[in-house]
Design a protein that fits this description.
Helix content: 55-70%
Number of helices: 12
Order of helices and strands: HHHHHHHHHHHEEH
Shape: globular
Radius of gyration: 22 Å
Number of strands: 2
Length: 287
């Protein structure tokens, strides 16, 4: 069936475009999907289910992660390239390592380019960006609680890079322990945990970080400190975070700290803002 579709596509294309049109990319794409027909059928079915606004719902995101989880890393890369090409996010034949490197200390993990719609810098977040990422965070946390660390890891990594401190902490735990697919790395784990613990944050993160830092041998402590400082400089979001024990979730005797982005807190409190889409618009317009 797929081969028939390809043949019809070539005939249709030849009649609709001028002779000067180059078919090199199209032919290579068709050859690529023919070589990976079974994978393409799965990816194409998923791509067709996505909304035209290029924003995947939480249900669709979980379905994509489950689909990827049934294949080995090589097949996952093929599927990610296919989805990126189908959704006009990247050309299928781009080298996998050609994607921008956010930090030499961290590898890039691509989940169907779903995070491409969100800025990396919290200063550029809109309220809608934060709300959408909170939804993805719920999926990541659910996978984490179920012990599905390999599936939770790439979601947590993208959230951590965008300053979600609880995601940074959970990412650290996965790196402290490692999995069959994720290499254990105490150094990277401390980098992320140190970032989660820095500035405006939950006290529990600071307690854990200080505990682990005391266990670091003196002969490597300077190296660990340098790495932690590097992670904090790159990924700390404290300037845009508000943490408090005065929130609606505190109903017991023990007071828990609740952290959210300033823009969320302002919107929840009904404080007027010049632009609900700009985190940096912190001026109080109530006067």
């Amino acid at each position: 069936m797929l081969r028939l579709m390809v043949a019809l596509f070539l005939v249709f294309s030849a009649t609709c475009y001028g002779a000067e049109e180059s078919w090199a990319e199209d032919k290579s794409w068709l050859s690529f999907i023919l070589q990976n027909e079974a994978l393409f059928n799965k990816v194409n079915e998923y791509a067709e289910s996505l909304k035209k606004d290029k924003t995947a719902s939480i249900h669709e995101l979980r379905r994509w992660n489950k689909l990827l989880g049934k294949h080995d890393p090589h097949e996952q890369r093929i599927m990610e390239r296919m989805l990126g090409h189908l959704r006009n996010r990247m050309k299928f034949d781009n080298a996998y390592h050609d994607r921008p490197i956010a930090d030499e200390m961290e590898e890039i993990v691509v989940i169907g380019s779903l995070f491409d719609q969100f800025p990396m810098d919290p200063a550029e977040f809109s309220y809608q960006d934060i709300t959408a990422m909170r939804g993805i965070r719920m999926t990541a946390n659910e996978l984490y609680r179920e012990g599905k660390y390999d599936q939770a890891y790439p979601l947590l990594l993208d959230l951590a890079k965008r300053g979600f401190k609880d995601s940074q902490s959970r990412l650290a735990y996965i790196l402290f322990t490692g999995t069959k697919k994720i290499d254990k790395s105490n150094l990277r784990a401390l980098g992320w945990l140190g970032t989660a613990a820095y500035g405006e944050s939950e006290p529990m993160f600071r307690v854990l970080f200080n505990k682990y830092m005391k266990e670091v041998p003196d002969n490597v402590k300077s190296t660990v400190t340098a790495v932690v400082n590097g992670y904090r400089e790159r990924y700390d979001s404290s300037a845009y975070i508000d943490c408090t024990t005065n929130h609606r979730f505190n109903q017991g005797v023990v007071k828990r700290t609740y952290c959210q982005f300033d823009l969320e807190a302002r919107a929840e409190a009904g404080v007027p803002m010049r632009s609900v889409n700009d985190v940096s618009s912190q001026d109080d317009d109530s006067s």
